[in-house]
Amino acid sequence: MTIEEVVGSLESGMTIGIGGWGARRKPMALVRAIYRSPLEDLTIVSYGGADVGLLCAAGKVRKVIAPFVTLDSVPLEPHFRAARQNGAIEFTEYDEGMFMFGLLAAAHRLPFLPTRAGLGSDVMRVNPELRTVRSPYDDQEEFVAAPALTLDVALVHMDRADTRGNGQYLGPDPYMDDMLAKAAGRCYVSCERLVEPGKLEGPPQTLLISRMYTAGVVETPNGGHFTDCGPDHGRDEAFQRHYARSAADPEAWAAFADRFLAGDETAYQEAVVRWHEEQHQEQRERAR
Predict the structure, then answer these.
(1) Dist CA 92 CA 75 (whole Å)
(2) The Cα angle at residue 233 between residues 33 and 15, in degrees rounded to 5
(3) At the N or C end, where does the chain have fewer CB atoms within 10 A?
(4) What Å distances lie between residue 161 and 53, 77, 95, CA to CA?
(5) Could you tell me where the beta strands, DSSP code E, fall in the chain?
(6) What is the mean pLDDT of residues 126-148?
C-alpha cells in the first residue's frame, strides 16, 4: 500500500494504537500523513512520543491513553504538555505494566486481565474507574483488573517487512508492537525496507509481526524520522531539539509546520536534508 492508502482507510473517531516507545521506532510517516488528513476526534493508545504530540498539535486527538509521552532526551513531549495544560484532550494514565496487560487482554479478546502492576500507587487514585479482583483460589490475593485496550487500528514501524506483511525488527527491543497488532481490528505495518517473501534475514525471534495480523504494508524509507530506528538510523537529536524548541512558541511552530509538514512525505524528507545542510553550513561559518 501507499501511505495515503493506509491513512485513507482510517475514520474520524477511531481508537488507534501506535507502536514504538517514546522516541524510538515510531511510524512517523503514517503519523505525519494523519497530521495532514481531515481525521479528527481520535483516541490514541501509545507508549507515547512525538506521535502523540504531533497529533495533539494538529487538533486530531480527543483522548490519549498512555503510561507516558516522552521524547526520551526531552522528558515530556512539549505539544502533549500544552494539550494537557490547556485541557484540550482527555488523558488516561496507566502504569507501564498495566498498559501492557491491557493490550494483552485485548489481544486475547478478554475484558480485563489481573495484574499486580498499579497496586499501592496513585494510578488507582487518578483512575477511580479502575477495579480490583480477588483470586478465587486459596491465596485470595487482590489484583488490579487491567481493562482491555481494544484498538480499531494499530500502526507499527518495522525495520524490515515482506510483501505478505511479515514484520521484522533489527534493533535492541521489540517494544509492544506485536501486542498492538494483536489487540487491533486491523494492523498496518510501515517499514524501512520492503523485501520479497523469503528474503527476511536474521534470527527467527526478530520476526515480530505475523502476516496473519497485517491488513497492509507500506515501504517508508527513513519513515521513523526523527525517532531512533537502529541499526538503519539513530535518533536525529539535532532535529528533535529543533522540533521541541519550535513547539514552545506559536510563531516558531507555524514556521516549522509550514516548512516540514505542509507537503507529503517526500517533501518532508527533502526539507529535513536541506535543514541539516544549513546547520552544517552555519557550523562551518562559526568555526572560521
Answers:
(1) 18
(2) 35
(3) C
(4) 27, 29, 31
(5) 15-18, 42-46, 61-66, 90-93, 112-115, 131-134, 142-147, 151-162, 167-168, 184-195, 207-209, 214-219
(6) 96
Q: 3-state class of 46 per DSSP?
A: strand
Domain positions in the chain are: 1-236, 237-287
SS (H, E, C) 197-213: CCCCCCCHHHEEECHHH
Tens of pLDDT, residue by residue over 5-34, are: 999 999 999 999 999 999 999 999 999 999
SS3 label, residue 233: strand
Residue 211 three-state SS:
helix
What is the pLDDT at residue 287?
86
Q: Tell me: the pLDDT tens digits for 246-281? A: 999 999 999 999 999 999 999 999 999 999 999 999
Write out the H or E segment, with its range, that includes residue 219: strand 214-219
Cβ contact 209:181 at 8 Å: yes
Nearest-5° angle of CA 172, CA 3, CA 278?
70
- The residues near 34 (Cβ < 8 Å, ≥ 6 apart) are 7, 10, 42, 55, 58, 60
C-beta atoms surrounding 243 within 10 Å: 22
- Cell 494510578 locates to 123
Pairwise CA distance, residues 276 & 263, whole Å = 18
* 1-236: in CATH 3.20.20.70: no
Q: Which residues contact 30 (CB under 8 A, 6 or more apart)?
A: 3, 6, 7, 155, 157, 188, 190, 218, 220, 223
81's CB contacts (< 8 A; 6+ apart) are none
Reported residue count of the chain is 288
Q: How far apart are CA 73 and CA 183, in angstroms?
A: 29
Contact call for residues 162 and 131 (beta carbons, < 8 A)? no
Chain position carrying cell 490547556: 86
Cell of 242: 529543533
Tally of CB atoms within 10 A around 98: 26
Q: Please report which confidence band the pLDDT of residue 159 belongs to, taking 50, 70 and 90 as the band edges.
A: very high
